[in-house]
Amino acid sequence: MIQIQAFTFNPFDENTYILYDDTKECVIIDPGCSNNSEQKELVQFIADEGLKPVKLLNTHCHIDHVFGNAFIAKKYNLGLEIHKDDLQTLHSLPQVSHIYGLNAEESVDPSNFLKEGDQIKFGNSVLDIVFTPGHSPGSICFISHADKFIIGGDVLFYGSIGRTDLPGGDHAMLLSCIRKKLFILGDDYAVFSGHGQKTSIGFEKKHNPFLVQPVK
């Protein structure tokens, strides 16, 4: 069974996730740690639990999800894995950092590109990859069918969806991806989002104002 540890980091209150199982291998998804204190918190948890990081993954490459890419890659000698369609977003980090008046260390380049249908394997666990663009061009979700959860980045939130007014955003595409690729999953699948509290597919089907079908 996969254990999920969440951290809320940086000025954007972004959720960083560590996933691990009884083998102690772990994957780090969207490291948003943006300062020494946040980096130490993440590293301390890994040390305390005796974990072995084996993967560095981004659901997408907006600034708040990649602050810690360079730090984690160097600390644990890991290659970065993203969808190729978010490479331009990743490379815009210095400019975006300047716009926000923040000091973000430039990310490492990807060592591997992920695509829909690929699987992330660590320990005894498997995550399936689904391509869900709309919030960003290369947004992906990581899905555990064994444990019925989604690490969804900024695709689907509790009662909301990812913003689509940033470069490469597409509102209609995002809604379509959620309906066709996430809402086909069981209502009991938990959704761990890039911001805010976790939710479920069943709850969002019934209550998300962006996605509830209007009564005719």
Which key features would you list for this structure?
single chain, 216 residues, alpha/beta, Metallo-beta-lactamase, Chain A, six-stranded mixed β-sheet, 7 helices, 26% helix
The gist of it:
By secondary structure, the protein is of the alpha/beta class. Helix content is 26%, strand content 30%.
Question: Care to describe what's here?
Answer:
There is one protein chain. The chain has 216 residues and is of the alpha/beta class. It has one domain (3-207): Ribonuclease Z/Hydroxyacylglutathione hydrolase-like (Metallo-beta-lactamase, Chain A, 4-Layer Sandwich). Helices cover 26% and strands 30% of the residues. The protein is built from seven helices and 14 strands. The chain has a six-stranded mixed β-sheet, with helices on one face. A hairpin with a 5-residue loop joins strand 13 (190-193) and strand 14 (199-200). The chain is globular, with a radius of gyration of 16 Å. The termini are far apart. The mean pLDDT is 96.
